[in-house]
Structure of Ceramide kinase:
Amino acid sequence: MERPSRLLLVSQLCIRNTAYDVSLSRSLLTWKRLTSSPMYRFRPNMGHSVPLSEIISVRGEEEEGGTKHKDDSSWKKIKDRGGQDSRQAFTVSYVERCRQHRWRCAEVTFTCPDTELCWNWVRSIREQLASISGRPRSLLVYINPYGGKRQGKHIYEHKVAPLFAQAGISTQVIVTEYANHARDHLRTDAELSNFDGVVCVGGDGMFSEIIHGLIWRTQIDSGIDPNCPDEALSPCSLRIGIIPAGSTDCICFATVGTNDPITSALHIILGDSQPLDVSSVHHNNVFLRYSVSLLGYGFYGDVLSDSERKRWMGLARYDISGAKMFLTHHYYEGTVSYLPARGAVGTPRDSSRCRSGCAVCQHNEEIRSDRAVKYEMDEASDCENDGEWRTVRGKFLAINAACMSCACPRSPKGLSPAAHLADGTTDLILVRKCSRFNFLRHLLRHTNKDDQFDLAFVEVHRVVRFRFTPRHCQSDSDLELELLGNSKRQIFSQICRDHPACGCARTYSSWNCDGEILTHAAIDVRVHCRLIKLFARGIEEPQVFEDLHNPCAI
Ligand SMILES: CCCCCCCCCCCCC/C=C/[C@@H](O)[C@H](COP(=O)(O)O)NC(=O)CCCCCCCCCCCCCCC
Ligand SMILES: Nc1ncnc2c1ncn2[C@@H]1O[C@H](COP(=O)(O)OP(=O)(O)O)[C@@H](O)[C@H]1O
Ligand SMILES: [Ca+2]
C-alpha cells in the first residue's frame, strides 16, 4: 500500500452519477466507490487500480468536440443521464487483460464538480505519462499488403492506426510494393534518427525483411563486416513492433502469447521491450541470412519450398504441403557439428518456460557479460575457447534449430517449448530417419502435452553455434558430383528401391529460415545474444493478469 503522502491528487469524482474517491500517485490511478450512499453500504467495495504504466491516454471531453468516437457509450451516458457540462469530464484509456494473453483498450470517464479540477486531473495524468521512459513518439511502419490473408492494410488502418493516434504517436507508413522493399529501404534510404521504432505489419517473412534491413544497417554504421561469421555484431537500438498479418506469425505468438493486432499495438504504445537472440547463417564465410525462429532443413525446408508454389491456397498451403512431405518421407545424409552452450542455465528438456522477465534469460546474460569483461573478448570466441565441438553423422528427416519456442496457433507449445527468447542459445533438434508412423508420433506431440523429444530417434541440444554439411559436400564435392554424372538418377532410384518402407534419400533439401528459402545446404550458424529488441514483454504468467474485478467480455 502506498502512503497518502505519495499521492499527487485526491478528489471525489463521479463515474456514471456514482461518487468515487479517486487518487493519483506516481504509479497508480485508483478509484473506490464512496460507501456513504445507503444503496451501496452492504456491498463489498473493492475499488479499482490501474498502473500508470498501463494507461494509454487521457483526454478532457472538451478536446473531443464533434470528433468523439461514435460508440463511446460512457460519454453519451454522462450527457444523457446527468445533463452535465461535458467539459467537466475526462476519460482515461487503459489496458485491460482478457483471456489468452489478449489485451483490450478499456475506458473510464470521470465527471468533476468544476472545470479547473477537471483540467488539473488531465494535466497531472499527462505529466506522469510523459515521465514514463521508453514510450515511442514516432514510428516507421511497413505494411506487406500480400502477407497472410492479404489483410495487412485493412488491419493496420482499422485496428492499429486509431490506437496510435489516440496515444499521440506519429507515424510514417510505407505499404511495400515488392518483396524486399522494406529491407532495402531500411538498409539505405530510411532516415532512422527520426524514429523511436519500426513496426512490421505482416508475417514472419516480412519481419525477416525488417531485421535484415535493420541489422545490416547497424553493422555497416558500426564498421562491422557482416560477412565474417566470427565478428561480434552490434545490437540494434531501434525496437521493432509486430502487428501479426501473416500465415504463421510465430515470432509474434511466441513473444506476446497471442496473434492479435490490437494486443500488439498496445504493447507498442506502452513501450514494452523484449530482447531477442538472432542466429546468423553463413556459407563459406559469406553471409546468407539471419534467423530468429525456425531454421529447418529436411522436413520444414521441403514443406516451405513446396508451399511457396501453393501460395494461392492461402494458409492451407502449409497443411497440404506438410501432408505431402510427410508422405514423401525424404531423408538427408550429412554431418552436424555443434558447440554446446556451456555454463548456461537451462536445458531443452526443462519443464519451465520462458516467460515475461525470465530469470534464466537474465542469468545467462549476466554470465555472458561477466565473462566478456573478464576475458575482454567477444562472447562467441569466449564460448569457443571454453567449449568442445561435437559431431553427429547420420540420416535425418529433419534438422531444426529454434532460437525461441516457435509457438504458434498450429503448435501452441512450439518446436522447442523450453527455448528462451534471450539466453544466447538455440535448440538444435535432430530427427533421425525413422518410420512414417514414428515421425507422425513426433509431429503429433507438437500439438499435445506429450514430449516430442522423448523418442529414440530424436535428440536435442542447446547450442551456441552449429554447422551442417550435407554428405555430398563432405569430401571433394565437385569431384564427387562429376563422378556421379549421368548415373546420378540411377543411383538415387536404387536408393529408393532399397528403402521402400523408409522413404527416399535425396542429396539436398533447402533450409527454411524464418519462412524464407535458403538454397545453400552447407551452413555455419552462430547465435548472437539479444541482437534485436521487440516492443513486447514475453508471455505473461496467467496469474499476473487474472483480475476478477476487471473481467473483459470477449
Ligand atoms: C499431424 C499434425 C502435425 C502438426 C505439426 C505441427 C508442427 C508445427 C511447428 C511449427 C513451427 C513453426 C515455426 C515457424 C515458422 C515460420 O517462420 C514460417 C513462416 O511463417 P509466415 O508464413 O508467417 O511467414 N512458417 C513455416 O515455415 C510454416 C511451417 C508449417 C509447418 C506445418 C507442418 C504441418 C505438418 C502436417 C503433417 C500432416 C501429416 C498428415 C498425415 C496424413
Ligand atoms: N509488396 C509485396 N509484394 C510481394 N511480396 C512482398 C511484398 N512485401 C513483402 N513481400 C514478401 O512477402 C513474403 C511473405 O510475407 P509475410 O508477411 O511473411 O506473409 P506470410 O506469412 O503469408 O508468408 C515475404 O517473403 C516478403 O518479403
Ligand atoms: Ca534463445
